[in-house]
Amino acid sequence: MMANVDWWMIGEATIDTLLMTGFSLLFTVLIGLPVGVLLFLTSPGQMMSHRGIYQSVAFIVNVLRSVPFLILLIVMIPMSRLLVGTALGVQGSIPPLVASAAPFFARLVENVLRELDPGVSEACRSMGATSRQTVLWALLPEATTGILAAIVVTAITLVGYSAMSGVIGGGGLGDLAVRYGYQRYQGDVMAVTVVILVIMVQVFQVLGDRWVARLNRK
Fold first, then answer.
1. Does residue 2 sit within a domain?
2. 53 falls in which pLDDT band (50, 70, 90)?
3. Residue range 160-173: average pLDDT?
4. Do residues 148 and 211 lie in contact, with contact meaning Cβ atoms separated by under 8 Å?
5. Which letter does DSSP use for residue 94 in this model?
6. Which residue range is the domain that position 124 belongs to?
7. Does residue 1 lie in a domain region?
8. Which residues lie closer than 8 Å to 168 by C-beta, 6 or more apart?
9. CB–CB of 207/199 below 8 Å?
10. Separation of alpha carbons 201 and 190, rounded Å
11. Tell me, what CATH number does 29's domain have?
12. Within the chain, how many helices (H) and strands (E) appear?
C-alpha cells in the first residue's frame, strides 16, 4: 500500500513546510499588524482619520488580496530572487507567502480593532494620551485575544499556501505531492502528504483555540 513512500523524505518535507509556515507567519505579523493598525487609525471617524492615506493603503491591500496565490507565486519570481537569492525551495517561497498573507492579516487586525468599544479611545483622548500611547497601551492590549485568533487563522491559511508553492518547486509537502504524487502517479505519496497537511491544520487550530481561550479566562 505504501511501497512508494520514502518516510525520510516525507519527514524532511514536513519540516520544510513547518519552516515555510513559521517564517512566513513571523514576517506576516511584523508587516500586517502595523498596516492593520494604520488602516484602522486613518479610516473615517478615527483619531487619525485621513482619506488619502486610508484609500492608498486600502487599495494596495485589496490588490494583493485579489491576486490568486498561484499567479502571485509566478509574478514574484524575480523579486524572490532579488530578496533571498532564489525562487525555489523554502527561502524562495517565503516572499510570495508573506505578500499574500500580510494584506489578509492586516484586514483581520483592522476588523478586530473596529469591534472594540469606542469608549476605550475616547477615554484615552480625555486623559491626554497621544495616538501612539492609545494604540500601545489601550487598543492593542484590549484586542490581544482577537489578534491571536487572527494569527491562528493566518497560520492555517499559510499551510495551504505553502502546499500550493510546490507547483513552482517551492519545497515542502506541496512540492512532494506535485513531483511524486501527481507527475509520477504515486497515489500513496499524495495520500500521505494530504493526511499530514490535514493533521497539521488540526493541530494549529486546536492549540490556537486553547491559547485564545486561556487568555480570555485571564
1. no
2. very high
3. 81
4. yes
5. H
6. 7-217
7. no
8. 73, 74, 77, 87, 88
9. no
10. 17
11. 1.10.3720.10
12. 11, 0
